[in-house]
Amino acid sequence: MNWYPWLNYSYRQILSQHQAQRGHHALLIQALFGMGDDALAWGISRWLMCKQPDGLKSCGKCHPCQLMQTGTHPDWYRLEAEKGKSSLGIDAVRSVTEKLWHHAQQGGAKVVWLPDAGQLTEAAANALLKTLEEPPKNTWFLLSSLEPSRLLPTLRSRCLLWHLAPPDEAQSLQWLNKHCAAGLNERTAALRLASGAPVATLELLKEKTWQQRQQVCQALPAALRGDTLSLLPALNHDDAARRIGWLCSLLVDAIKWQQGGGQYISNVDRQAEVMHLASLLPSAAIDASLRNWMQCRDRLLNVVAVNRELLLTEQLLNWEAIIKPAAAASPN
């Protein structure tokens, strides 16, 4: 598993607490997608399992370390939803928690890793809570969540919250420069679109994904001239919610530009489109547009069996009703 330089501080701080015998039995890591929290949890797990740690490093030579390296350690458990499912049920949680009360097969620590605690159903969360309240000896829980506030308050209260903050933009850009061939403007735009998460940025900059984002940007001028339905082919895909997010970021940038905050825009590689939006539409129309698109995105994500093409078509026609009168009335 890859290790990332911005994880070093968190790794040292967390394991220093364990060295001082003050490590919390349940660590809840708050992290954006693409921050490498899985690598952090893996590194912590390896140290906890190691029989002969060298300071803050696992030895890599003992039998537990070798088992961790091959992914076959019997006392390390990964709890997540089955492939194709979005929720983690009570049966999976009970299956693991029952094993925790048995003697560790390697005679050391037992570690449970939940890559996305938000997948827990309420029943599963309550089942896990019972073990978190009175955990077996030398048992550690590592949970990760994008939005801990959505978890059961009783579950959160049993954990130590650790915020894995995105690194400084300059540090991230330097790291990205070593791992991709994109220019500075493209790297900066992708990093800001990914909310500062470097690994997610690298995924966004992959040729196929970046080209999809470019298609949305390139279709915008025709839409603003009155042909809003020309945006439909660029938006109507399985990841439509993500593509709407790219469109919304352009609208937010236009508001920033109107307010004199051009240096803070995300789409630095698409400044022409941002300026055009800012000059064509008054702030009230941009604000209304943004709210409409966010509502559309929410419906895509949360309405069961929604007809995506029909919803997008309706939204584009509604958007046309907002921007046409506003553009006609604009002094620019």
UniProtKB/TrEMBL annotation:
<comment type="function">
    <text>DNA polymerase III is a complex, multichain enzyme responsible for most of the replicative synthesis in bacteria. This DNA polymerase also exhibits 3' to 5' exonuclease activity.</text>
</comment>
<dbReference type="GO" id="GO:0003887">
    <property type="term" value="F:DNA-directed DNA polymerase activity"/>
</dbReference>
<comment type="subunit">
    <text>DNA polymerase III contains a core (composed of alpha, epsilon and theta chains) that associates with a tau subunit. This core dimerizes to form the POLIII' complex. PolIII' associates with the gamma complex (composed of gamma, delta, delta', psi and chi chains) and with the beta chain to form the complete DNA polymerase III complex.</text>
</comment>
<keyword id="KW-0239">DNA-directed DNA polymerase</keyword>
<keyword id="KW-0808">Transferase</keyword>
<protein>
    <recommendedName>
        <fullName>DNA polymerase III subunit delta'</fullName>
        <ecNumber>2.7.7.7</ecNumber>
    </recommendedName>
</protein>
<dbReference type="GO" id="GO:0006261">
    <property type="term" value="P:DNA-templated DNA replication"/>
</dbReference>
<dbReference type="InterPro" id="IPR048731">
    <property type="entry name" value="HolB_lid-gammaproteobact"/>
</dbReference>
<feature type="domain" description="DNA polymerase III delta subunit C-terminal">
    <location>
        <begin position="209"/>
        <end position="320"/>
    </location>
</feature>
<keyword id="KW-0548">Nucleotidyltransferase</keyword>
<dbReference type="Pfam" id="PF09115">
    <property type="entry name" value="DNApol3-delta_C"/>
</dbReference>
<dbReference type="InterPro" id="IPR015199">
    <property type="entry name" value="DNA_pol_III_delta_C"/>
</dbReference>
<dbReference type="InterPro" id="IPR027417">
    <property type="entry name" value="P-loop_NTPase"/>
</dbReference>
<feature type="domain" description="DNA polymerase III subunit delta' AAA+ ATPase lid">
    <location>
        <begin position="167"/>
        <end position="205"/>
    </location>
</feature>
<keyword id="KW-0235">DNA replication</keyword>
<dbReference type="InterPro" id="IPR008921">
    <property type="entry name" value="DNA_pol3_clamp-load_cplx_C"/>
</dbReference>
<dbReference type="InterPro" id="IPR004622">
    <property type="entry name" value="DNA_pol_HolB"/>
</dbReference>
<dbReference type="Pfam" id="PF13177">
    <property type="entry name" value="DNA_pol3_delta2"/>
</dbReference>
<dbReference type="GO" id="GO:0003677">
    <property type="term" value="F:DNA binding"/>
</dbReference>
<dbReference type="GO" id="GO:0009360">
    <property type="term" value="C:DNA polymerase III complex"/>
</dbReference>
<dbReference type="GO" id="GO:0008408">
    <property type="term" value="F:3'-5' exonuclease activity"/>
</dbReference>
<dbReference type="InterPro" id="IPR050238">
    <property type="entry name" value="DNA_Rep/Repair_Clamp_Loader"/>
</dbReference>
<dbReference type="Pfam" id="PF21500">
    <property type="entry name" value="HolB_lid"/>
</dbReference>
